[in-house]
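Customer escalation, tier 2.

The customer says the design service returned an amino acid string that "doesn't look like it belongs to this structure." They asked us to rerun it and document both sides in this ticket. The original structure tokens are below, unchanged.
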């Protein structure tokens, strides 16, 4: 019998990415505290929260493969959160202007029946062009990326802000690393290409 696949997220971006794989899944919102721990590095925060998100739904879905993902952006060793509005987004983009920001996208796949946890962190480096205040304002007015760490949507107009982007998985920057996820599902005997489990 096919196990249930659960995406532990309310993010429309992660849902749209998972839909690319063409497999049935459900979404559920994990109730966790996403506050970084004192002196916690951005990569460690992302990895810890991705696991917590997946495990938070284990009692509700006792025989499922649960996907947890979290992303933290870091500039000059300081984490950048979701801006939440225009003013904070403007400040973020001014800080990132002409610099390279590192995005840590952590992925966890938790088998709630066997308690087996797989984890990986995909690192993406994004360098912004040197932008004028008018260009930053024009972008924010059009794209309104208030819910995106780093204040830019690479899958949308935000790509025009970027001078370069490097990483092993283009979907990681959007929020759900599908290359790593496909590998993890295969380790759970779920072949995405045949849409069935072994």
């Amino acid at each position: 019998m096919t196990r249930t696949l659960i995406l532990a997220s309310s993010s429309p971006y992660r849902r749209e990415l998972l839909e690319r794989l063409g497999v049935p899944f459900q979404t559920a919102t994990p109730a966790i505290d996403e506050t970084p721990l004192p002196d916690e590095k951005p990569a460690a925060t992302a990895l810890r929260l991705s696991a917590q998100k997946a495990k938070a739904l284990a009692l509700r879905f006792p025989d499922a493969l649960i996907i947890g993902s979290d992303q933290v952006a870091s500039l000059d060793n300081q984490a950048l959160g979701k801006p939440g509005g225009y003013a904070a987004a403007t400040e973020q983009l001014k800080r990132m202007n002409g610099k390279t920001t590192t995005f840590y996208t952590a992925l966890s796949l938790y088998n709630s029946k066997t308690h087996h946890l797989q984890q990986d962190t995909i690192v993406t480096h994004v360098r912004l062009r040197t932008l004028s205040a008018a260009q930053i304002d024009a972008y924010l007015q059009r794209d309104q990326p208030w819910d995106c760490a780093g204040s830019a949507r690479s899958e949308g107009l935000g790509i025009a802000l970027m001078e370069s982007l490097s990483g092993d998985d283009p979907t990681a920057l959007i929020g759900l690393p599908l290359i790593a996820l496909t590998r993890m599902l295969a380790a759970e005997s779920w072949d995405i290409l045949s849409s069935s489990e072994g």
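Tier 2 assessment: The sequence is consistent with the input. Residues 4-197 form a domain with the Maf protein fold (CATH 3.90.950.10). The chain has five helices and nine strands. Sent an explanation to the customer and offered a walkthrough call.
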